[in-house]
């Protein structure tokens, strides 16, 4: 007996039966060859049944449930499928399918076989559990689980069916079994040799067993056995009688060569059909078949890759190695594609052995999360290919064409596409290596630019709005505090509500209180007279000496009230050491009164232009320049720090008041305007102010900016230096008639020609060093430039004056700005009670000075429009009619309007010719 030649003990339990059967088998084999039936393969997740009743494909479902699903024409199989029984694996023969039950590890069969019992095959050794089952044409064998103890090197195989129903005991551990048509084979675990038993006559598989060959796995076919050899190349090796009997079988033809001439390619697995075999190539999972086929047959679909294959008699099916997990079949007698996704392998609870990798759960799942499907790692790469990556626990290894040694068309076409990819990649690499630094540099530059621009913009806006921010804040807070704005917008100006002021610094007085304080507004208390008001000295109940400004009752009360409100509005909001402090107000009936700190030394105008020489001399050069610095600071505060900025519009010597300590305060805000809250742009305002101090740009173009105050301040500086009025009367050489001279027209040419001494007040002694006064004269010249833009801002003026003052005082560091006024001049006004500062000046003295002073003070009030007859009328109301009319008409009549015309000429040169109407106004007023 061939099987005894295997070198192991083979105990035949029922020898007589076996011997009788072998003859029968031989006869049947021949007859079966004619009816072309065979039973084939090892246990797998898929199996194929064949036979007269039609082919059936069965597989374990792809959902990992281990439940079986079948598709085919043998209804006994498809209807009899135990759909609720989970199986570990499947195998099939002629007309039947068997599965290894998951719960009991016992076989369960169904179908229409006359040799295999439906259900669990009988008789079975009690309690036997199987590792693997494998079906031939008419029989089924099961490899029992390995034994322990003394029997651990003994293997038990139980077979059922035609001529095979026996319990076989083998000496040695069996790794796997595979049933052929009417024989079965096993692979020893230790030495990896093959042994077979069963019908030898028809197949000769027993006598042809390659004794010296070691196999990784085996698969029996109809009359042959194939195995995958151990070793690096993992090629298939087949043996048996398929070739010989081919001549006896008319249906077969050698379409794919002899079945024992397996291709020399590394294989992952192999299955045997009736006369053919198929294998899965190890490097790409492609399918390759060889042996005999029947006509007509379909060949293996081109380029398919499969996870698993199962062979029937004349056809083979494989599970596509893709997400769909759909079976495809080729050969004869079966559909080429089947509509049921199946599991690509068996779910095992043990970890994948070395040489296997775990199929990703995305591709196929097992119900038990601790189970996995293990697939054999591919082995070896074909010619022209190299191993790109090793097989790991989770993925198979990859082979790729070695493009440097390409010969085959497939390799060339693969390489050309990958070559172009590589080229493209290299191109991209080069592009990026060249472009990346440029792009990074560009981005960095753009970011830098954005940052610089943003910072510049922010700084610029902040710079521009530095004066306006607080205004916005102010108006915002007002908005929040009250249901609406407490500042009424009036043509771009902002005016606070009177109600609002009441809760501020200004105190509200009753008329009675102020009447009492000023002794009934008696003439004795009168200290000055303005265009719209009388100013009285008064003493409040608490002893505070105050100046009470009472609006003049006139038919034009509305204008007085307007100035009253403007002054009240502004002064209650402003607070600076060199601005006149408002203490309170009274608004009763027609009466409008403002209460100020009392300025003991009256106005700068009185000091500079008063007839009393002693009073004039009180203000020496240092005092005068100090007053100029202080006034400049007050105006600078209005422009630069008040929120919103304030344009005084009436800077002149009579509005610079001098306190007890000879410190200056800027007063009279009746004409002042608040700058627009939202921008620092010029205000288009109708001209108002005092003639001689009026900015030409303002009265010509109605262009009002803070630079208009700078112009007026320049005039004031010239006034301080020269002791002459803004418009003064002067005898010209050889001329007996006085004519009105504009101080700018007179002083600027002298200063520019270096004759500063020619303009200095002759009342005062010249200082030892004239430099300081020259500087001040130059500052004045700049302030009175025709174009506002070309005039310095008040902060620059202040700095220049401070330096000049330091120089004048003989400061060693005369280039440094001097300290704040309060420190330098020792002013303590902010800390002194007003009551402590009483006046040394009598009301009559003031009155006398005032009356004299007002001679040439031409006031163009806010309601003036030019050229306007009203302007001259207004002058009359402000000063002595005779004086003004007389002097101006004299000037006009004398025809000596040279300096006016000069001024007009220079203005024309700078800002264009004046219109006839403007000419009229200029000639009328200068
Ligand atoms: N707080 C004060 N303390 C002392 N004297 C004052 C005070 N305020 C004003 N005077 C005096 O009263 C005079 C008149 O002041 P007022 O502000 O009413 O008019 P003005 O500015 O001189 O002229 P106009 O109103 O036409 O501009 C001033 O010239 C000054 O001499």
From TrEMBL:
It is a single-pass type I membrane protein. One of its GO terms (molecular function) is protein homodimerization activity. Residues 521-805 form the Protein kinase domain. SUPFAM superfamilies: Protein kinase-like (PK-like), RCC1/BLIP-II. Residues 836-845 have a biased composition (Polar residues). It is an enzyme of class 2 (transferase). Disulfide bonds join 381-399. Its main location: membrane. Keywords: ATP-binding, Cell membrane, Developmental protein, Disulfide bond, Endosome, Glycoprotein, Kinase, Membrane, Nucleotide-binding, Receptor, Repeat, Serine/threonine-protein kinase, Signal, Transferase, Transmembrane, Transmembrane helix. InterPro entries: Kinase-like_dom_sf, Prot_kinase_dom, Protein_kinase_ATP_BS, RCC1/BLIP-II, Ser-Thr/Tyr_kinase_cat_dom, Ser/Thr_kinase_AS, TNFR/NGFR_Cys_rich_reg. GO terms for cellular component: multivesicular body membrane; plasma membrane. This is non-specific serine/threonine protein kinase. It comes from Trema orientale.
